[in-house]
Amino acid sequence: xxxxxxxxxxxxxxxxxxxxxxxxxxxxxxxxxxxxxxxxxxxxxxxxxxxxxxxxxxxxxxxxxxxxxxxxxxxxxxxxxxxxxxxxxxxxxxxxxxxxxxxxxxxxxxxxxxxxxxxxxxxxxxxxxxxxxxxxxxxxxxxxxxxxxxxxxxxxxxxxxxxxxxxxxxxxxxxxxxxxxxxxxxxxxxxxxxxxxxxxx
Length: 201
Known about the structure:
Elements: E1 6-11, H1 32-38, E2 44-50, E3 71-74, E4 77-80, E5 106-110, H2 133-140, E6 144-150, H3 152-165, E7 169-178, H4 185-195, E8 199-200
Parallel strand pairs: 1-2, 1-6, 2-5, 6-7, 7-8
Antiparallel strand pairs: 3-4
Helix pairs in contact: 3-4
């Protein structure tokens, strides 16, 4: 590593996705030491942060007849309904306290539009509305992206798949990710990433 074309994308290592959080990923906090060790090896470092307004449309609480993890159809396609999580400005939305955030060149907040969720670091879940990350990475000359963080089968996978579609050379460092694994979602995500040419290491 260390080539100017290499970027590390640290996905959603936030309190609500760690043990004790509103949408805890098993072992979510275990990725922190490895990510901290990796930071110095990359000249470009981007951290993403789930950043939802209250009453977000992806929250089960916004749908009176639904419970968390129900699947509903939105204008932009199927959407898993989640427990309320990563509310803007809350402790749950904050990065894990042991994560070294100071090296970040950019912190990208996503999911702040109340009517559409945003798993990917590149696009909202409508697959059309860009976050601006692609332009930032291209302006920095990044061509090789390594993804780490939470969760493997949702925000990491969607980000990696979009990056591959956009023509980047994409790697997911599996030991620095953890998955939700909802109804086989991990195996599906891994298969999709392999099929898209994403290197799982």
